[in-house]
Amino acid sequence: MITSAARRFLKLGGMAGRVGASVMTSQVLELVRSGPEKNLRRTENLVKNALRIVETLGELKGAAMKVGQMLSLHEGLLPPEVAEVLRGLQREAPRVPAEVMEFEVRGALPNFDELFESFDFSAFAAASIGQVHRGRLRDGRDVAVKVQYPLIDEIVKADLKNLKTIFKSLVALFSDVDVEPLWGELRDGLMAEIDYLHEAENIRRMTELHADVPEIVIPRVIGEATARTVLTMEYVEGIPPAEACSDRFPEELRNRWGVVLSEFQMRGIIEHRFVHADPNMANFAFREDGRVVVYDFGCVKEVPADLARAYADAFVAVIDGRVEDLPAVFAGIGLHMRDESPVDVDLIEPYIALISEVFRAGPPYTFGQDNREIYSEIIRLGFQDLDQKTDLEFPEDVIFINRSLSGHFGNLSRLRATGPWRELVLKYARPS
Q1: Distances (CA, A) of 210 to 83, 99, 219
Q2: Which residue among 187, 222, 228, 432 has its CA within the 20 to 30 Å range from the CA of 383?
Q3: Spatial separation of the C-alpha atoms in residues 283 and 240, rounded to whole Å
Q4: Residue 202: which residues within 8 A CB-CB, separation 6 or more?
Q5: Distance in angstroms (rounded) separating the CA atoms of residues 356 and 339
Q6: pLDDT 10s per residue in the chain (432 long)?
Q7: DSSP-assigned letter for residue 270
């Protein structure tokens, strides 16, 4: 793993330059191609660039890889071949040698030998800021232990500065949108994620909130074996997402998982106002009895009461077909045009028309059912009327929660879930 800030910046800048040049060359060549050859070459180029991104960000880890994981959530933008390549960032990363991680664990837990009967210093999973290891405590409990990479706090801080420079330059090529709110949310979230004591508190609070929700399984924290850079939890197994989304499991079970995930989202945004805000599918595992295991609580968002109420009001307005009421709902939470005028109904109506299909009163909607899939369509709409959308002003909390919701739609699409979405949302947005 590269730890030098200067070398990491050069690596990121070099990647951005190579991908940009490749895209421009491909666009020029497309002018002289047509038909099947054009589509084939375009896909080949996208796959090649996706592999470049995965290789570079996977090697760098830290904030660089985290940003790549965020991009991979938006698979509706990409051909299936490219989405599959980027999805590799959601689950795996090149691993740090066992002897290095042993040094980190023993340094963080001075009483390590008293706590653990056994510990596998070779990781069974690797992510953006740390690795996960198997262990067994001296009382016989099997545990999963998240261990941060060496110097990860310095690496994250350096990455954020470098990535912001590159990101602003790239966005400026096609839009004058203000990236500060998005970057502020990302920066604060990443800084919180590198404090495992903070994540442990998130887990404890989320466990308490779901004490009476048996379909959600949350691994418990082992406090005596947890420090700022080491987080020890019960080892809880589940079916990995790739298997759960395959045809190996019946449609009825995938539907059940989809409903559990949806209630988890609605409960977090509207009822608990404490939402698991990293919709990466790798943060979930599945049980054959219909339960869902939730991992990784580094990115959890407090939802202000007025914002929770506004989301509930917006959902109800969409379901009732009262699109004209939405600008006033949005204005109440600070979402308006730059001149403080309400959002134009014409700007949001195409989105509402799509989302209304999910909440229709007729046959229940199935995510991922055809080429005109709602998740992909919503992403596509985001690139229309950019000149008006860059005049929007909104609170940072909206960006964060919307990212969580859009990622959730993507997860439902992967599950190809069918469910009573209308009744489910009204259960929380307009309780009886």
Answers
A1: 33, 38, 12
A2: 187
A3: 9
A4: 297, 298, 300
A5: 29
A6: 544 555 555 554 554 444 444 443 444 333 333 444 444 444 454 445 444 555 555 454 544 555 545 444 444 444 444 444 445 544 445 578 899 999 999 999 999 999 999 999 999 887 668 899 999 999 999 999 999 988 777 777 766 666 666 556 545 544 455 667 666 766 777 777 889 999 999 999 999 999 999 999 999 999 999 999 999 999 999 999 999 999 999 999 999 999 999 999 999 999 999 999 888 888 999 999 999 999 999 889 899 999 999 999 999 999 999 999 999 998 888 888 878 888 888 888 888 888 888 998 888 999 987 645 565 666 555 545 544 555 677 777 777 787 788 889 889 999 999 999 999 999 999 986
A7: I
Q: How far is CA 278 from CA 220, 274, 294, 299, in A?
A: 19, 12, 11, 6
pTM higher than 0.85: no
Q: Count the alpha carbons within 13 Å of 308 in the hemisphere toward its beta carbon.
A: 18
Indicate the domain borders of the chain: 5-91, 159-190, 239-432
- Report CA-CA distances (Å) from 8 to 1, 63, 116, 276: 10, 11, 36, 30
Separation of alpha carbons 189 and 69, rounded Å:
14
- Rounded Cα–Cα distance for residues 373 and 83 (Å): 15
Question: Which region, left, alpha or beta, applies to residue 195 given φ > 0 means left and ψ of -120 to 50 means alpha?
Answer: beta
- Residue 363 burial (10 A CB sphere; 0-12, 13-18, 19+): exposed
Task: Name the 3-class secondary structure at 18.
Answer: helix
Integer Cα distance of 50 and 55 in angstroms: 9
Could you give the CA distance from residue 133 to residue 137 in angstroms, rounded to a whole number? 13
